[in-house]
Protein 1
Amino acid sequence: MRDKRMTAADVVAELSDGMTVGIGGWGSRRKPMALVRAILDSPVRDLTIVSYGGPDVGLLCAAGKVRRLVFGFVSLDSIPYDPWFQRVRQQGGIEVREFDEGMFYSGLLAASHRLPFLPIRAGLGSDVLRVNPDLKTVRSPYDDEELVAMPALSLDVALIHLNRADRHGNGQYLGPDPYFDDLFCMAAKRRFLSCERIVDTSELDGPPQSLLTNRMMVDGVVETPNGAHFTSCVPDYGRDEAFQRHYAKSASDEDLWPSFVDQFLSRGETGYQLAVQGMS
């Protein structure tokens, strides 16, 4: 079996301008933040980001990497909105396509099954159809019920973060929720998994359902300890609420933001982790 270990820089080297990049996790939970920070350090731009968004979206918007955002929400969980997302959306700085969370899921599922769309009731009778005028409805051939034809959310690249993985791409989550990281992988042409620790395959024990990815679903594995910070990666660590408040305060004030960038985002991943340790 192939050894798929690589670095975050190797992952980013596979990205190019204009790609559609899906980012796993949920809000401010188990986001592949080390990979996101590696994108910040790169010249890649004009990305379409597909995400149940959290600070991944905010940081990429702050760095001018996003041309278009496809999302179900963008939240920091304990803080309702990511400030950078709020600002760029209010200013019309990015194109947006907002879906109901269930519609978003159906779009990933359609892409993972290589289908052009899947029918779903979510969205009917709501403003989702008004703000997405290109969405179409279909009639069931069995009872003529009208349904939304949710288009596939096909991805060029998927980025996810799990607790453990082996060098072949078999990945395991140890927290309470898989989110939809497996669907992100199956919806993408290239799939990259960062993890807290790379272990031998024999150490990936536990409930079978915790083995979220198999080696056929992953093209590269990156070991990034504390790589989901400041989002949560339970049980390895919870969300760093103090840091998240510091991020949100800095992101809300254009005068404070340059200092945040200088302290945490301008010195690579090692510099970031050292700065976080210094803050605590």
Protein 2
Amino acid sequence: MSRKPRDKRMSIDEVIGSLESGMTIGIGGWGPRRKPMALVRALYNSDLTDLTIVSWGGADVGLLARAGKIRRLVYAFVSLDSVPLEPNFQRARQAAPESGLAIPEIVELDEGMFQTGLKAAAERLPFLPMRAGLGSDVLVNNPWITTVTSPYDEGHGHEELVAVPALRLDAALVHLNRADPHGNASYLGPDPYFDDLFAMAADRTYVSVEQVVDTAGLTVDTPVQRLLLSRMMVTGVVETPNGAHFSTCTPDYERDERFQRAYAAAASGSDEDWQAFHDRFLAGDEASYQAAVQAFTEETTK
């Protein structure tokens, strides 16, 4: 038996084929920043349905909402930054329940509560206590989230705290800059976001990356502290150059604002506008998407 770490490289289709309808899937990144969009696009085109999506959302949530994939959405915000409210999410959020366009179940959390829910799951705890959410409508709109009384009196009585439930994930999808074939992965940009928390909260983690390198290459041009994911956390590695497009993947590339404006215009427009966008960019596989984006870039930069 080989003593070498296992080679965990997979294709996009193999990752999507390992998922099932009804799963709870966490999507890493932050709004329009370092989202695993190649995997999200494949999820958009898959037969999977009835998903619970957990995300600091951007176009990942918007695309999956537009495709009717989401039964339950757990989120703190869904934004494209320069487009404050993700338009496909806005369409689903404002639709009447009987329209068939709305997301059936919504769990809107404070950002701190969202992070604490992932921490609880990562630590295999049923909940963690915190003050965020007290006195807010988060508890009014989510009456199933309860409070606990601290067993300790710190001189001002026994404090009431929010018992933030664990956000356990069946699978996590994240995108980083580099990984080795075994699943050790690093980020090269300014922020790790919370991709390690997503990985620790999940039963399985699939990481897409701009480039797969050998293990020694992970620290050639970056400090060892930027190794965010250990191979112990990772189920599969997918090499997807430009795979976070149109979100950022600093320093490999920044957000494609021109393309984002085209996406937002189509999502905010008529059904015919969205169908045209879908047919041009989303109907095929990842190679077709990247070729269409290249053609779009050449047309719009003349």
Protein 3
Amino acid sequence: MAEYVHDTGGPIFHIGRYVLMIRRCFVKPERFSMYWKETLRQMVNIGVGSLVIILLISFFIGAVSAVQFAYNLSSSMVPMYYVGYVVKESLILELAPTISCLVLAGKVGSNLSSELGTMRLTEQIDALEIMGVNTFSYLIGPKLMAAITMVPILVVISAGTGIYGGLLAGSLTGYVSSTDFIQGVLMNFIPKNVYIMLTKAAVFGFILTSISCYQGFYAHGSSIEIGKASTRAVVLSSIMVLFADLILAWLLLN
């Protein structure tokens, strides 16, 4: 674990600097239009840029979940429409938000860390600070706002795609008919579960983005450090997403 922490300062030092960074991100911008354009650009990068990989992974997760659960039910007396119900609940409560955000931690997190790390090592951040720009709110704030907005949308798309993947896989393999699967999906819908999914998505999006930005923003040394910062961003983001998943499950399901 120690190799994934900066080589300067201990955990308390980094937690304190991380909290200060977050606080400086949410100050009133000097020129709102400039920050708004940057936020839109980041929303496109995070949302549209990650759409294809989210669609592919979600489709196969839903398909595999349906086939495996149908296989286990095939020798029991449980009605097969429960396949649709279980696939829907597992996707909404756990698989869509958690797996999607772990994938985003790898794709988006490494990109953000590399971008800020390159700006730091080429002294672009120093130049902005000399010009009086609040680099925290200009470079990191729009990324956080874009992630909090776009990650829940990606997670909703992920859940829908996974359910469709389960429907298609169940029908093609012959385990469960599309009518039974849809009956299971429509059975016992709980709106609170959608609220839990969206809450998880927003929190996970904030975590993976802020940690990745922290690693890139404070990168130092040679160009090799950019790669190390990206690795730390992905590993730490993934660990913290899973830890937050446990805490949110405990808090929201009680």
